[in-house]
Task: inverse folding
């Protein structure tokens, strides 16, 4: 029985469903690899999906029940790894997609983790610190048998942070009856976190953008960069790219963006953002919407906000030479072919934004050995891995005559499949 017998080609792919986008790319890469049908069946599904209902005493005394998820996609290469997000629109499909992305992301940069992701359906902006703490601790207690340094290592994601990780680490440690720092990454430095972790995703984007710009013979001072998002990822990438000589011409936050074709003064922009909590009324640039920002002509477009930003609806209007994906799933599968026809060089999310999980790996290693590195050592090792991984994917793309996204998936699947095949199936 051939590979195609296991792919339902008739199934309807919904463009805005991140799990469907991820799976369509997985299917394409698996077909090109001529992946064994039995291995295909194993790798395309998660190992475990957990849905838990979390009762929490709210500040006014009533009990609210929140829904939480943890999807553990794959353990073949090591403990599962992935963030936890708090948002009102979290869905199981989204968490499934993000967990699978983590499997492929860890494999692309060749670190010994599988993939996982978690989330709670809630609106953290409407919750007090005490309510968030009680919810986090109960969620952790519900997952206590499924997470741990050797099993599944959570990290921060959308609307979670160092404090959230400290609560999870403390709750887990109380159950273990001793301090277990390696149960999560993204912790405060004084709580056995890693130097350089907060900036790692943005710094990783700089490293791969540098390699792509050099590949096309561009000068940094002439390279126009548009960045969607000014949070930890987008804001850090903007600051670092500005410092190293790029001309950042547009930047946005959740409300909208600013544009200056001569280049933005990024330190001044960030100072304005910190003071006013918004880019609105920034005097050094013209206001643009987030949709308009994506369509500005530039050399490097760096979407670092959320999923499904470049779709079949706007891909014809995208005018960049290099697309460096800072967010997870910013481009839908339906837009991929158009980008390829337009000749856009895509640095896919599972490679481009892997700086965060790479530095999380460093934090996990440091926690387990109880010895911590200087920040310049962290950054140097991060650069080594990101640059080597970029060139691994480029070579794979050239060897198999495919684009960078499919090459990244093929390389990742090949690595996970090899380990799965070598370990065998326990029965």
Result:
């Amino acid at each position: 029985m051939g590979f195609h017998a296991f792919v339902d080609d008739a199934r309807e792919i919904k463009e805005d469903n991140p799990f469907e986008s991820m799976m369509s790319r997985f299917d394409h890469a698996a077909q090109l690899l001529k992946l064994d049908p039995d291995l295909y069946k194993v790798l395309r599904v998660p190992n475990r999906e957990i849905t838990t209902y979390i009762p929490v005493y709210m500040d006014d005394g009533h009990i609210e029940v929140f829904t939480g998820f943890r999807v553990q996609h794959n353990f073949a290469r090591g403990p599962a790894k992935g963030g936890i997000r708090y948002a009102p629109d979290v869905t199981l499909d989204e968490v499934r997609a993000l967990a699978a992305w983590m499997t492929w992301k860890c494999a692309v940069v060749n670190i010994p983790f599988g993939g996982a992701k978690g989330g709670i359906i809630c609106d953290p902006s409407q919750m007090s610190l005490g309510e968030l703490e009680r919810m986090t601790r109960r969620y952790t207690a519900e997952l206590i048998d499924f997470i741990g340094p050797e099993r599944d290592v959570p990290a921060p994601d959308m609307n979670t942070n160092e404090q959230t990780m400290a609560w999870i680490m403390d709750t887990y440690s109380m159950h273990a009856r001793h301090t277990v720092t390696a149960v999560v990454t993204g912790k405060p430095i004084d709580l056995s976190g890693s130097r350089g972790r907060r900036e790692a995703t943005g710094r990783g984007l700089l490293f791969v953008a540098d390699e792509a710009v050099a590949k096309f013979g561009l000068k940094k001072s002439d390279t126009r960069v548009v960045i969607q998002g000014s949070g930890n990822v987008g804001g850090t990438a903007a600051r670092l790219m500005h410092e190293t000589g790029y001309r950042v011409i547009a930047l946005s936050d959740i409300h909208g963006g600013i544009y200056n074709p001569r280049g933005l003064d990024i330190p001044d922009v960030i100072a304005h953002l910190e003071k006013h909590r918004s880019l609105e009324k920034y005097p050094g640039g013209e206001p643009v919407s987030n949709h308009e920002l994506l369509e500005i002509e530039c050399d490097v477009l760096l979407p670092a906000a959320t999923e499904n930003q470049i779709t079949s609806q706007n891909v014809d209007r995208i005018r960049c030479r290099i697309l460096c994906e800072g967010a997870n799933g910013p481009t839908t599968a339906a837009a991929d072919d158009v980008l390829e026809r337009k000749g856009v060089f895509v640095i896919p999310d599972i490679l481009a934004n892997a700086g965060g999980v790479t530095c999380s790996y460093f934090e996990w290693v440091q926690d387990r050995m109880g010895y911590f590195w200087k920040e310049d050592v962290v950054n140097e090792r991060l650069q080594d891995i990101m640059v080597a991984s970029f060139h691994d994917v480029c070579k794979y793309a050239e060897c198999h005559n495919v684009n960078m996204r499919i090459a990244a998936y093929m390389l990742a699947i090949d690595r996970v499949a090899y380990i799965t095949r070598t370990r065998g199936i326990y029965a």
Summary: The longest strand covers residues 48-57. The two ends are 22 Å apart (CA to CA). Residues 23 and 38 are 17 Å apart (CA to CA).
